[in-house]
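Record pair follows.
FIRST:
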Amino acid sequence: MRFRHPDGSTVHLAYCTNVHPAETLDGVRAQLRDHCEPVRRRLGRDRLGIGLWLARDAARTLINDPAELRALRSELDSRGLEVVTLNGFPYEGFGADEVKYRVYRPDWTEPDRLAHTTDLARLLAALLPDDATEGTISTLPLAWRTPYDGDPEAARTARSAVTTLAQRLDALAEMTGKSIRIGLEPEPGCTVETTADAIAPLTDIGHDRIGICVDTCHLATSFEDPATALDALAAAGVRIVKSQLSAALHAEDPHLPEVRTALAAFAEPRFLHQTRTSTAAGLRGTDDLDEAVAGRALPDSTPWRAHFHVPLHAPPAPPLTSTLPVLRDTLARLVGGPAPLTRHLEVETYTWQALPAELRPRTRTQLADGIAAELTLARDLLVDLGLKELP
């Protein structure tokens, strides 16, 4: 979906296909047929943006076979789908029964991360619509904090790899005329956990093609104030490459037994749901939600937030809620001013099948309806901010 900002620029809205697990190119094609095109039809649009997730095996197939890449581009066109952004954070296995810490490997200290991201950049340059010259890719925020933190050699290796990537992106732009930018995506528990954590490594790298991806669920989970966070990025000259529109799980009164019970329903074995609370002594947290609800790992006199991507249009029932207000405030700062701070927006709710059983979609139809409803909410927010939806 495309929108015209009051300044005349085009803002793109997509939804991320990591909600539809696929490790192979055949699986990606099935996503387009079974999910992405039905969502587009529900929205009544001739064209729908998707934030494509290409796992390692799918990406390698496309890199090694130009005919397959041309065929994918043709299929996107025929189904009314366009790609200006990729989710390069998960490497493989995102549809496994247990993902947890595996999603952070390989990290930026490992050669496979650089190789894969280079592949993604080349592929995105080829998949961009004819009238688009800029693409974006979100990626792992360097590494999970252990054993990375406190290891200066790991930090040097990771930053060197990202710098090498930036040089490759320069060469790609010169060769293709397509500008691809990469955004480190701060996430709780990682060495770059917050937007503030991103400033030092990004200013150290100091390259225009390397910036930040602001995920509004992660921002909220870490209790970051959107205005403060975005102003600090601007002051440091850090470019916001893209933003993922998402909402975290919020519990106002975690000391109450009924709140603990409600939270426990969202503790599940597939993904990590890092949980945080903001206290007078600073931010406290656990790596997963079950650690928080099971005992006294977190102070419970202040609200808790968990890294669980709640469907935007469907907050959980009381006594829980979502951090949709944080998303609204962030979006207003991102695109509500005289010029957009980013032009690529991506709804990323990959946890539909991790919801409590009674809330999960049971059919493809129900899932498509839910994704379309999320995109409709995001569209309405953009229109309310003065953007005009384009055909």
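SECOND:
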Amino acid sequence: MLIGPYSGIDLGTLVLMVVLFVVAESISTHVLVDDEKAGISPSSAVALAAVVLVGPAGAAVVGFACCLALRRQILVKRAFNGAQYALAAYTAGHVYLLLGGTVGVPGQSDFPEIVFPYVAAVLTHTLINSLLIGLLMWGLGAGRAAGPRPRRWRPLLALEVTSIGYQMLGLAIAAVWGAVGIVAPLLILLPLFIARWTFGQQIAEARAHEATLATLCQAVETKDYYTRGHCMRVAEGAAMIAAELGMSAERVQKIRYAGMLHDIGKLGVPTKVIQKTGKLTDDEYAAIKLHPTRGYEIVREISFLDEALAGIRHHHERLDGRGYPMGLVGMEIPESARIISVADVFDCLTSTRSYRKAWSVEEAIAELRRCAGTQFDPKMVEALVRAVSREGWQTPDIAEPPGGHYGSTEDTELEGSNAPTSAEPAKRGGDEATKAAESTSAGVVTGGQDR
């Protein structure tokens, strides 16, 4: 900004651009990206309009005005944000001039030639912003892995690319500036402000939905010490599978909802049955097998669940038709249910239960693959394997069950056995999902359940 030059810049235009930039930056939309807060604001449109109207030096002044945004920020953040915008706007301005762009209000004769240098300026602005943010995150250690899951850069990149849409509007602001002056940004950005408000309302509604479902999850998990956090982990695993399969964000969210509520029907199962550590009686086993249908009946009137309802109702079906409640075979089972089944069993196997300690992730994956084609959809199993190998998996931290032992002596012996699969299910307590067993071996995955 000290280098300039400022010759030929209209001071009134520069001041108005600074004011508009500060206002736009102060009303940025906050969104969650990878569980962290980020912001999208129309200020980048004003910054790019400044490149055309007041040139590189003037655009740098406008960008540095980010320091004056009306929000709670410590001084060092204000300084960084201001310098970031100033450098990005200054560099974009010189690229714009280098490729034949002219400073001032563009006229009809300047089109379409002005479009190419302006697009180049937009891409330069985005590149410099992304580079500076990336360097900052790397310097703070935010770009390196924290725990079992590394930071996912794709959502951050998508957020930055999305801002290009705002920046392209800068040329429209510059084009009508000569006719209406300060009203130009209002004419261009007002529809976006309305859309922003609508978007904010949708986010608030989605958060309310999330909070409601989380409360229902907690109600289920209070019945069993071992299932604390199980519903949310199944939801996360199901979402990982759905995303790996390339499903739309909307479908991924619906399947995530199904994972959160897949065991909601356990509210209708007596607590003594849920927490039983020995084998189940026939009546107890029958009560457990009703929980998918009961869960469906509890939540079927919640309209926004949509596809999630099928996942809740059929997540204990098996490809070979030996599941429940309807004994569906193969692709008759809804896709969402096939996803939930894999995520449910994977979390069960990698979690501590009353009758056994948690399996390692590698052991659980081997077991899922062994049962693929009979119990699980192989495509869903491999999608989970790919997602877990890339993003990791956080196993629950449960050192040992209440009382300090895992089930009965009989269960302990079975845990280490390699007995062949029995045609008649052996009913055992302590099972997270349905307490049904398809084998005398405690290590075998059961009809949509862990062992």
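COMMENT: The chain has a mean pLDDT of 77.
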